[in-house]
Fold this sequence. Notes:
The protein is of the alpha+beta class. The chain has 3 helices and 4 strands. The strands form 2 sheets. A two-stranded antiparallel sheet has the order 1-2. Strands 3-4 form a two-stranded antiparallel ribbon.
Amino acid sequence: MENDHGELVDLYVPRKCAATGRLIEAKDHASVQIAIADVDENGKMIPGQTTNLPIAGFIRHQGESDDSLNRITQELGHSLRLARKQFLSMPGAGFHF
């Protein structure tokens, strides 16, 4: 709902699961929203531009969230595997113990 100034005033804005298209309920505390940074042709992050992918809790419970994210990002033109490979090839990237 919007007020007279065109500002959104709802307390809860429903989200749709990116994997199934179903609405994510307000009580679904297992759901997550993952922000993937948009990159330019050189592979550098574009500041302030992200793609948000909400994933419902029942998808995570089934263990299908990683497959769903790979499928969705490939449909959107991103490639998580390529980004992961580029990140790990950077000096100083990865885990340090």
